[in-house]
């Protein structure tokens, strides 16, 4: 028998869980209802026509966001896992190491505009990459890094010490131990945390406007130094800047495509995690 | 008497404050089973981990004294620690299979020690591609690594139980099987000494019995130092017994003397089970 106060408490917890799910479903339904009608083969694969938004498609924006996602993944995962390995395995446990960890945790909460400004200053001007896909990938990678480092550090710390010691006790070096024993456990775990950061990065608008996203391109990007279109920015412009009365509907359709793209990315992460787990025989 | 490890005035401190091992001197005879007993927290694990230099992997530990292994102090500056650890194997309280197949668990030691081409040598890479062999293929194989895996598993009395699932996850084995797998993995690099830290404390009586039988057999080829909190176990499998108390080695003698005729009051009380 539950006490009365417990019953109430339990009800509140349950209610908030349902509220969360409902909110998510409501948002999806709203965007879906508002935008599903514009989804067509032409909308998904056509080049953008600025004068008549019904005549073209958002293929350049899909491709741009896809490039961003892949670029950020390729850039931030190796860097993030490398940084996490250095921090947990080779950095000495001292004041500096703790300061770095605190800094990284806080970086995950820095507003994305700040990363945009950073990217503009460092990648666009200082490194002379110009406003380009590459600059955007690097900017978003800097934004995603803290998530991946934090996830990987936690995963590394969760590796049972006796497992590492068993490896060392067989005459393995520290590096062999990390590579052969720790990483198989760390990769799938940090993938889960890291994908949240990448999904967030793919939905960003503010930073990419500063470093290379444009609303209207007459051709697809062919080099990393080209400008590019991206789904969130496209949706933003349509919803707020375009005079066509159908623009909001097209903005919703674009948002829907973005959600699906992020969903596919997460699905990819789940499949990859499953692959790692079976490859490394983790049950 | 042929001594394989001679410890001289060993002291260990944790965090510059906890004096976990106090001035311990002990000679370990070759091809015997030496049991380390004593109440928990008395420094048995710490002592054991000083013998293969696993202690120095932790920060803030201080070690003084000498551990002479085959005539050479393992704490001397020019000792190759990985080579040393290959010669002194270790198995822990909880089974610690790697996230790999049974085969790869055993192959791990020989591979990291570059005895069969290593992980990144050409032969290692080729092996990765063609290694899903059946039990009978591994049984008949002339390949060096196959041979090591097969013989190690046989020596650990595990071959019959796992030969049909060599390439399945080691996590699918029972606790007792996992522990024997860890022993097989340690054997695979042909050590001289095997350190066991309470290897059966998490196992049921049947699994414990199998490990004890295995330890008795291992004595022919290796020297075994086993920490146990189980006094009966020490009396069943050991030749010599070392009784630790509060970081000190109180008494070290043949099993017979420790159990029937101990010199110290404390030892007598402990083996009678008066405290623990
Ligand atoms: N990593 C550590 N840091 C600090 N103190 C430790 C550490 N490991 C063990 N100790 C202390 O050292 C003493 C001996 O521990 P241990 O060797 O594990 O004993 P036993 O194996 O006999 O139970 C205990 O007092 C324990 O609290
Ligand atoms: Mg212990």
From TrEMBL, chain A:
InterPro entries assigned: MetI-like, MetI-like_sf, Phosphate_PstA
Taxonomic superkingdom: Bacteria
Protein's cellular compartments: Cell membrane
Entry-linked PROSITE patterns: ABC_TM1
Keyword Transmembrane helix among UniProt keywords: yes
Membrane topology classification: Multi-pass membrane protein
Domain ABC transmembrane type-1: residue ranges: 62-269
One GO term of the biological process aspect: phosphate ion transmembrane transport
Pfam families: BPD_transp_1
GO CC annotations on file: plasma membrane
Main location: membrane
Residue ranges of the TM segments: 21-39, 59-87, 107-127, 133-160, 181-202, 255-276
SUPFAM superfamilies in UniProt: MetI-like
GO terms of molecular function: phosphate transmembrane transporter activity
Keywords: Cell membrane, Membrane, Transmembrane, Transmembrane helix, Transport
Membership in a protein family: Belongs to the binding-protein-dependent transport system permease family. CysTW subfamily.
Protein name: Phosphate transport system permease protein PstA
Organism: Candidatus Falkowbacteria bacterium RIFCSPLOWO2_02_FULL_45_15
Lineage of source species: Bacteria, Candidatus Falkowiibacteriota
From TrEMBL, chain B:
InterPro entries membership: AAA+_ATPase, ABC_transporter-like_ATP-bd, ABC_transporter-like_CS, P-loop_NTPase, PstB-like
GO CC field: membrane
Pfam families the record matches: ABC_tran (PF00005)
Lineage top rank: taxon: Bacteria
GO biological process terms, semicolon-separated: phosphate ion transmembrane transport
Keywords assigned: ATP-binding, Nucleotide-binding, Transport
Residues covered by the ABC transporter domain: 5-271
UniProt GO molecular function: ATP binding; ATP hydrolysis activity; phosphate transmembrane transporter activity
Name of the protein this chain belongs to: Phosphate ABC transporter ATP-binding protein
